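Task: complex structure prediction.
Instruction: return structure tokens for all chains below.
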Amino acid sequence: MINELEKIKDSVLLQDIKVEELSSMLGCLRGVIKHYKKGEEVLSQGAEIKQFGLLIEGKLQVVQYDHFGNKSILSIIEPNQIFAEAYAYVNKLPSMNVEALVDSTVLFLDSDKLSSPCQNCCSFHKQLVKNLLFIISNKNVNLTEKIECMAKRTTKEKLLTFLSLESIKQNSKEFYIQYDRQALADYLGVERSAMSAELSKLKNEGMLEYNKNWFKLLQK
Amino acid sequence: MINELEKIKDSVLLQDIKVEELSSMLGCLRGVIKHYKKGEEVLSQGAEIKQFGLLIEGKLQVVQYDHFGNKSILSIIEPNQIFAEAYAYVNKLPSMNVEALVDSTVLFLDSDKLSSPCQNCCSFHKQLVKNLLFIISNKNVNLTEKIECMAKRTTKEKLLTFLSLESIKQNSKEFYIQYDRQALADYLGVERSAMSAELSKLKNEGMLEYNKNWFKLLQK
DNA sequence: AAAAGTATGTTGGAAAAACAACGGATTATA
DNA sequence: TATAATCCGTTGTTTTTCCAACATACTTTT
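Output:
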């Protein structure tokens, strides 16, 4: 147990919480550690979620099966990341499954206990709530930005929206992006080669310059 | 002041908090009420946000100006809704503006104070945190579902993903949807008429039946 | 330095979506 | 009830994207 806590003490969720406090936290939040074999189901579509998970070791994938049985992978969970936290706080039943890609170890924490601190109002409770709010808010901001880009009708507009956002966030007309071409295309929900072609066009039209991951937005 | 609290006591944020507690809460969370004239800026792009807002009266719009000055409306805020809560909990600077569409009254609450309850651990603090986690998690789930739909390449796939999700959520192959055709097209980020045509095709192919807001998914 | 692998750009034809315009049906309003 | 307004489906044309295949440049490995 101690060994396992050592592995996750640097996760965002446990940021600024003392290692000594971690084990008392486990009791307070009804912490349960579970092990899964490769291929096992960690959470199932439609099953009520009262706890959220923190992956200690292994790798998980969040998948969705639609009405016709088609499978689509929504995200990959790496160690130190939390998952199902949003569903733990709403009444809705999850519409996706979580499966273990390799043998994995998960710490489940009681979402109710986390938001209703115990009588003594332990200091780590405050910090946990802060951290959780940060994590969820952060996801929220990122999801919103992605939607802003994807909502545009053409690849050109999607690209410009994305680049404009980067420019604003990095507070400069010149900036580096974190994605390679394929990842950027996936992020925007378009075809890589078509996106490359669109980037060339924009360069020819004098709207931007770029080289690999470096971009510069120009006046029209 | 009392009058204003009366107006927002039914908001999700203040759910299950006693009216008597509201004014003590205001002190604790450094609550500030501000008034805006139509057209005034409530929050500005790039300006640090330490507080989030709860709209008491009026109507606001969240807008984004890109690098080329194009304006796009991200959302409309109605009374009792909160806004900027995600940005208040992350370090990122907001990339959007909030403007008053009509004369409006806003209650600002200190995000830091909310997540770090005071010494006496007042009961409303717990409830507020719970409510806020619910609101943000809910948004998160909704945003994720929207992205699932929008990420599909064709209008047909977007429709089927949306309808599958509805079917799962309503736990039935038959269900009613909340959007009219134009709203659904906007939600999915596609053209209304093209979407209508696609619906017809799916009906002809025997994949679904529908009439107005009623839909039924069929086996392939 | 050669070879293999990876990332990016280019192109042409097929497929899909956008767009515009219209007609019928339903709903709201005078 | 007449009229206007809104919603929805249809169609033909234009525009854009997808897709597959290939060329080039850069990176990593041996």
